[in-house]
């Protein structure tokens, strides 16, 4: 674990190099007048008590595992950490290949129907089952239905089931077919799989003659995917991450002396004061007629949205863009597709690297053994938030935490059913041009966090809030921060602010 002495010994002052930064960057960094080493390392004795107290565990990984009291605890914890993420990865790949397997399998079945003398192989049963399940995915998966419409999946599934039934007399296979039909009908009937009923595009308050909309060309308000071979938001989220490698960046850190990340007070998703503190410092370095625009991705988009809504006229930014962030994270508290397919993978990294990797002993000192067990066995982000973040930071429950995290979190759910909400909510405070960019096929943060098919949360109604400063740019495709061409969507907005 890091001690204060060790940490400060590792801090070495650095000079702004003329060989690695542009002249404008050099001028900018110099004008910030910020220290290049942590402030308490320069005046250690005077600042020790302000940053650390003797009874607070130091920063570092979890070292004590007394919450694992029996061998059964160890086995169950390891199983809970490994199995859900492996299953999620396998299911994601299976769903991705369903796009190709179902039509190819259908062609094979048609060939056998037209050429009944075709030799049967021992792998036919496996191929039939794989084709049936793949066709079932095309009809029941909400992202496939969004991409291709429900009729494509329904037609493929019915055709596959019919042809397999005709192709075999195997009782086991026919029973499997009947079971798949019942499961499919149940999933199709499931009312939670409601597709967006509104069009993609830019939504804004038409009663305000905003110069941004007037100058923003309509061709830049929609997204045409550069990779049509990626079938759904799952592929558009995962494949860019797997296929692209970001270059190694050499970071040069400057320190903000007034951020309250000290003692027990560490980062969590409802903290937005850090953004304000950083923006206020950056304002001091602005040139005449220069704008300060905040852009946040995923969790950064959530925090930025919350900051813009809460700060109101005190907002230190001139404009902001939230990408794949969501405005109401209470929606994510309910079990959904992401909890099973994506969050188990993300939860492993979040827990191991951040929660118990960076603040392990500090978290352990505030959680009970039962809570620590639940944290180590959490299979999704909501589970980690519920067991660790809520308890550590003193929130009442998960919904309280997500309400404090969200720009729309202070609005009761029942108000969303009407076409108007009570005044003086956070969203009414938006005082700068604020663009929310969200893909309807985002598999991690659902479109339901920013819009609804009816009521006040419908995009056309939601954007009438905030004196014309709220813009929603909803694209049918894009995944979670997975757009291949973002400059057309975001850059032009910033250009015309």
UniProtKB/TrEMBL annotation:
Pfam families: Abhydrolase_6. Keywords: Membrane, Transmembrane, Transmembrane helix. One of its GO terms (molecular function) is short-chain carboxylesterase activity. InterPro entries: AB_hydrolase_1, AB_hydrolase_4_sf, AB_hydrolase_fold. Residues 238-447 form the AB hydrolase-1 domain. The chain crosses the membrane at residues 92-111, 123-140, 146-165, 172-189. Belongs to the AB hydrolase superfamily. AB hydrolase 4 family. This is AB hydrolase-1 domain-containing protein. It comes from Fistulifera solaris. The lineage of its organism: Eukaryota, Sar, Stramenopiles, Ochrophyta, Bacillariophyta.
């Amino acid at each position: 674990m890091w001690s204060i002495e060790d940490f400060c010994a590792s801090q070495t002052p650095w000079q702004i190099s003329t060989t690695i930064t542009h002249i404008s960057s050099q001028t900018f960094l110099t004008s910030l007048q910020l220290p290049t080493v942590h402030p308490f390392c320069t005046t250690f004795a005077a600042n020790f008590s302000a940053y650390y107290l003797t009874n607070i565990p130091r920063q570092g990984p979890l070292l004590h595992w007394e919450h694992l009291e029996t061998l059964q605890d160890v086995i169950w914890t390891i199983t809970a950490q490994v199995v859900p993420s492996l299953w999620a990865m396998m299911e994601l790949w299976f769903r991705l290949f369903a796009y190709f397997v179902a039509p190819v399998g259908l062609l094979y079945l048609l060939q056998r129907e037209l050429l009944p003398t075709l030799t049967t192989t021992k792998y036919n049963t496996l191929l039939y089952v794989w084709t049936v399940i793949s066709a079932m995915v095309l009809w029941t998966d909400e992202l496939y239905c969004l991409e291709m419409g429900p009729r494509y999946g329904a037609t493929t599934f019915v055709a596959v089931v019919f042809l397999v039934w005709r192709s075999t007399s195997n009782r086991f296979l026919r029973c499997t077919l009947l079971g798949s039909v019942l499961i499919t009908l149940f999933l199709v009937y499931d009312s939670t799989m409601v597709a967006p009923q509104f069009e993609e595009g830019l939504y804004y308050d038409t009663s305000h003659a905003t110069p941004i909309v007037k100058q923003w060309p309509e061709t830049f308000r929609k997204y045409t995917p550069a990779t049509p071979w990626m079938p759904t938001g799952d592929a558009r989220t995962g494949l860019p991450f797997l296929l692209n490698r970001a270059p190694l960046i050499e970071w040069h850190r400057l320190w903000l002396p007034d951020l309250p990340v000290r003692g027990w007070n560490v980062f969590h998703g409802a903290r937005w004061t850090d953004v304000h503190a950083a923006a206020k410092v950056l304002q001091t370095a602005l040139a005449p007629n220069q704008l300060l625009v905040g852009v946040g991705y995923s969790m950064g988009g959530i925090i930025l949205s919350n900051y813009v809504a809460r700060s109101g006229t005190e907002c230190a930014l001139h404009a902001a863009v939230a990408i794949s962030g969501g405005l109401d994270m209470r929606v994510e508290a309910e079990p959904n597709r992401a909890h099973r397919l994506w969050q188990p993978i993300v939860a492993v990294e979040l827990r191991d690297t951040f929660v118990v990797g960076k603040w392990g002993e500090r978290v352990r000192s505030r959680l009970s053994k039962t809570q620590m067990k639940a944290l180590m066995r959490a299979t999704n982000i909501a589970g980690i938030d519920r067991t660790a973040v809520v308890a550590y930071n003193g929130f009442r429950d998960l919904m309280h935490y997500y309400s404090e995290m969200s720009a729309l979190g202070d609005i009761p759910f029942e108000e969303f059913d009407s076409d108007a909400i009570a005044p003086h909510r956070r969203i009414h405070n938006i005082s700068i041009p604020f663009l929310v960019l969200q893909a309807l096929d985002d598999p991690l943060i659902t479109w339901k966090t920013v819009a609804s098919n009816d009521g006040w949360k419908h995009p056309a109604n939601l954007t009438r809030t905030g004196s014309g400063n709220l813009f929603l740019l909803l694209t049918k495709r894009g995944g979670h921060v997975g757009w291949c061409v973002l400059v057309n969507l975001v850059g032009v907005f910033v250009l015309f602010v």
